[in-house]
Specification:
Blueprint: E1 5-7, H1 13-16, H2 24-42, H3 58-71, E2 77-81, H4 88-97, E3 112-116, H5 121-130, E4 136-142, H6 148-165, H7 167-173, E5 174-179, H8 184-192, E6 195-199, H9 212-220, H10 225-238, H11 248-263, E7 267-273, H12 278-292, E8 294-296, E9 302-305, E10 308-313, H13 322-327, E11 332-339, H14 356-359, H15 366-383, E12 388-393, H16 398-419, H17 427-439, H18 446-456
Parallel strand pairs: 2-3, 2-4, 4-5, 5-6, 7-10, 7-11, 11-12
Antiparallel strand pairs: 1-12, 8-9
Bound molecules: 5-phosphoarabinonic acid.
The site of 5-phosphoarabinonic acid has 15 residues, from loops.
């Protein structure tokens, strides 16, 4: 069974020096706070933090698998209509577990997956032109059931199905994932009789990948959701310990806090040395940014806090960002995602024996080269006193991805205690949604629209 490990060797001062590194005594000082933070998060498991319990919802997992089996072989495409927490986890699971070329050549009976997490007209029009809706199952996902982007996509694709196939086809070609009772999407489910799945209470968008939000599309494209949830449950067990040195989530959240608070590293780079894991870094960027990036403390004081997440991919970004990382401003710390044993290997052919500049590669494997570049980057960062932690995977499979997801979700929840913010709200996101509703002339938002319009009077356009 694969086991995800959190390696913090290269954040320690004995390797990278005292100015940027952490000491054992720093960790000891942090340990009681971390333990208390963990207890207060876990105490809310049965209350508002129901996402902690998602790995154990076996009846829901079975219901998803039954539905997936019932539509197996009927569709060439599954299209997710959703955004933010209703999309990023789906992309991450698909890229990690089905790989980048699944859609070119999916296994027999398994559809391709597309996640349309934008409303750029060129994207949506391009999709309508390129795909036959009759071969497509649309999974509309919205926790609130009212997000303008997702609802407009729903209306567009619903109309496309109506035009092409008529009203009777709607129920076969659309499946909805939303709140059990609230939101206009739930109301529409009731009116039009769509098959639907529930985003449970206490499961916010960015913590929802192990709910039907992520599990339904995953099951539809052949991902082993039971293994995913078993991995998450295993990490949950490991993360019950209040001993900071035994609990990967606790240690990760404490190091993030120490790096930011004591070492001025306000940028947190997730550097994926695995092409398949690169979208996990996108998913984590949202988790960290929306959870910890807050103006107000829990007590209501203005604190304007939060680390800035950055995503990088090895080895690609060695030729783009690593110069900055090794020699630029000392405001970053790094979490590498690293795979010990990739599923496949490729041997570089031997040729041009007389040309030393290329002959040293012949007969070696791409994995050797990839790992040498990864380790070379870590060494260069360490020699420049830049802190790096590594999340190691024996291999990338559903069990390991479940572990990673749970570890990072819990880490961020505990970070909320360290940063003294509510990690589960998103007033900044809501503010943007409200402004968009007002600008679109939605009923009930007249006052906000008037405010925006009147402030526009003060704007002086400056262009060149
Ligand atoms: O994490 C969050 O809460 C947000 O990113 C939401 O997922 C995003 O705004 C989409 O919201 P909804 O799922 O309600 O349509």
């Amino acid at each position: 069974m694969s086991r995800v490990r959190f390696d913090y060797t290269h954040v320690m001062s004995d390797l990278i020096g005292p100015e940027h590194g952490v000491t054992d005594s720093d960790l000891q000082v942090e340990a009681p706070h971390a333990g208390a933070a963990l207890k207060s998060v876990l105490a809310r498991r049965e209350e508002d933090l129901r996402w902690l319990d998602l790995p154990y919802q076996t009846a829901v997992h079975d219901e998803i698998l039954e539905y997936a089996a019932s539509v197996k072989g009927r569709f060439k495409n599954v299209v997710v209509l959703g955004i933010g927490g209703s999309a990023l986890g789906n992309i991450a699971l698909h890229d990690a577990l089905n790989g980048p070329f699944h859609n070119l050549n999916p296994p027999e009976g398994i559809p391709r997956l597309f996640v349309l997490d934008n409303i750029d007209a060129e994207l949506i029009a391009g999709f309508l032109e390129s795909f036959d809706v009759t071969e497509t199952l649309f999974n509309v996902i919205s926790k609130s059931g009212g997000t303008a982007e997702t609802m407009s996509q729903f209306l567009i694709f619903r109309e496309a199905i109506l035009q092409k196939l008529g009203a009777d086809a709607l129920k076969d070609q659309m499946v909805i994932t939303t709140d059990e009772k609230n939101g206009v999407l739930r109301e529409i489910v009731g009116r039009e009789g769509y098959r639907s799945f529930i985003v449970p209470d206490g499961v916010g968008g960015r913590f929802s990948v192990l709910s039907p939000v992520g599990l339904l599309p995953a099951a539809l494209v052949g991902i082993d959701i039971k293994a995913l949830c078993a991995g998450a449950a295993e990490m949950d067990e490991r993360c019950r310990s209040t001993d900071i040195l035994k609990n990967p989530a606790l240690l990760h959240s404490s190091i993030q806090t120490l790096m930011h608070r004591d070492k001025d590293k306000n940028i947190s780079v997730m550097f994926s040395y695995s092409h398949r894991l690169k979208s996990m870094a996108d998913w984590y960027a949202q988790l960290l940014a929306e959870s910890i990036g807050k103006r107000k403390s829990k007590e209501g004081k203005d604190i304007y806090t939060g680390p800035t997440p950055v995503r990088a991919v090895g080895v690609t970004d060695q030729h783009s960002q690593v110069q900055l990382y090794v020699e630029g401003t000392e405001d970053k710390w790094f979490t590498f995602l690293s795979v010990d044993e990739p599923d496949v290997n490729v041997t570089i052919p031997k040729a041009f024996d007389d040309l030393e500049g290329v002959s040293y590669l012949g007969g070696r494997t791409l994995t050797e080269l990839f790992q040498a570049e990864r380790d070379g980057t870590r060494i260069a960062l360490a020699e420049a006193e830049r802190p790096t932690a590594t999340i190691h995977f024996d291999k990338v499979d559903a069990h390991a991805i479940g572990q990673l997801i749970f570890m990072l979700e819990l880490s961020v929840a505990v970070m909320g205690e360290h940063y003294k913010v509510d990690a589960f709200d998103q007033p900044g996101v809501e503010a943007g949604k409200v402004a968009a509703y007002a600008l679109m002339g939605r009923d009930g938002y007249e006052e906000r629209r008037a405010e925006i319009e009147s402030s526009k009077g003060d704007w002086k356009t400056r262009e060149v």
